[in-house]
Specification:
Largest sheet: 9 strands, mixed
Radius of gyration: 19 Å
CATH class of the largest domain: Alpha Beta
Number of helices: 10
Strand content: 15-25%
Helix content: 25-40%
Family: Belongs to the thiolase-like superfamily. Chalcone/stilbene synthases family.
Number of domains: 2
Keywords: Acyltransferase, Transferase
CATH superfamily of the largest domain: Thiolase/Chalcone synthase
Structural class: alpha+beta
Pfam family, one: Chal_sti_synt_C
Distance between the termini: 12 Å
Strand order of the largest sheet: 5-4-6-7-1-8-13-12-11
Protein name: Alkylresorcinol/alkylpyrone synthase
Order of helices and strands: EEHHEHEHEHEHEEEEHEHHHEE
GO molecular function, one term: acyltransferase activity, transferring groups other than amino-acyl groups
CATH topology of the largest domain: Peroxisomal Thiolase, Chain A, domain 1
Shape: globular
Length: about 350
């Protein structure tokens, strides 16, 4: 089975309180003199205390279009990606030359050559390293990335694979857009990166992290409108429907119960719930539909409060924190969960 050898995160240096970000978004998105009570209410209810951003707050007003924002994305993504991958490889006791495949995911910027290609020479990957850049999975890509790395390593059990996620959500904020979706995104999403190093079953030593037992994807019918981007001249305009918690309540419990049952398990057997911090309403729906005890998602809530929703990077930060702060008993099962555009879910069964 695939073994997760190390998980490391990276955050940009510009850390701001939620109140500072709220004031900046009022200046960027609301008409001059507009009533900002809805903005203030949305930001106060997000349960986010602080976030790290790709740029200092005063520089966002100077971005003059999608091209300028995307240039910042490429520059920052390479820096954060190098930091995250380097730290994860060091923690796993491996070098860039050991890496056989790197998968890169982001939904907040575009690059060709892709970010993984730009990292190859800088970090010292072999010329024959396999590269798999992914765009479009959004928040689910942290979990889906682990699942697809697992698929690869089942076919190449002697290999080492790296999953890199970099999400710079602040660069997608739409100026002069006072829509609820734009304001909610401005309340929740932060910037960050994470890297996972995984080893196939025949790669020794493979580290002492959890193994991936199985994965499951579910694409929900008729839900394309729930989450994603409308792409226009100003870049990525967020699509964020209020029905996301209802979709969670409709499908997630059956998905989880069926997946666990296929492996002779029930929810009561799970010792760690590694859940993407989609936002308060989504997390409340997850806890409600799965009947989880209050402490089950404590690390997820903590991540949301301290750095916000980092899209695909977030669930990997929660996995890192679980391993560092709340390591479950060896041999017990854990479940990693994320959801994203499609609308879809990805479940990863772990054994600690």
């Amino acid at each position: 089975m695939t073994r997760i050898a190390a998980v490391r995160g990276a955050l940009p240096p510009n850390r701001h309180s939620q109140a500072e970000i709220t004031d900046a978004i009022a200046r960027l998105c609301l008409p001059e003199g507009a009533d900002r009570r809805v903005l203030d209410r949305l930001h106060a209810s997000a349960r986010v205390r602080s976030r790290h951003l790709a740029l200092p707050l005063d520089r966002y007003a100077k971005l003059d279009g999608f091209g300028a924002a995307n240039d910042v994305f490429v520059e920052c993504a390479v820096e954060l990606g190098a930091e995250a991958v380097g730290a994860a490889l060091d923690a796993a006791g491996l070098t860039p030359g050991d890496v056989d495949m790197i998968m890169f995911t982001s939904v907040t910027g575009l690059a060709a050559p892709s970010v993984d290609a730009r990292l190859a020479g800088r970090l010292g990957f072999r010329p024959d390293v396999k590269r798999v850049p992914i765009f479009g999975l959004g928040c689910v890509a942290g979990a889906a990335g682990i699942a697809r790395v697992h698929d690869y390593l089942r076919g190449w059990p002697e290999h080492v694979a790296v999953l890199l996620s970099v999400e710079l959500c602040s660069l997608t904020l739409q100026r002069d857009d006072s829509s609820v979706a734009n304001l909610v995104a401005g309340a929740l999403f932060g910037d960050g990166a994470a890297a996972v190093v995984a080893c196939g079953a025949d790669r020794l030593p493979g580290g002492d992290g959890p193994t991936v037992v199985a994965t499951r994807s579910h694409l929900y019918p008729g839900s394309e409108h729930v989450m994603g981007w409308d792409v226009g001249d100003t870049g990525f305009q967020v699509v964020l429907d209020a029905s996301v918690p209802d979709v969670v309540r409709t499908y997630l419990a059956d998905d989880v119960d069926g997946f666990l049952a296929d492996h002779g398990l029930t929810r009561q057997d799970v010792t760690a719930w590694v859940c993407h911090p989609g936002g308060p309403k989504v997390l409340e729906a997850v806890a409600e539909t799965l009947a989880l005890p209050e402490e089950a998602l404590e690390l997820t809530w903590r991540s949301l409060a301290s750095v916000g929703n980092l899209s695909s990077s977030s669930v990997l930060h929660v996995l890192r924190d679980t391993l560092a702060l709340r390591p479950p008993p060896p041999g017990t099962p854990g479940l990693l969960i994320a959801m994203g555009p499609g609308f879809c879910s990805e479940l990863v069964l772990l054994r600690w």
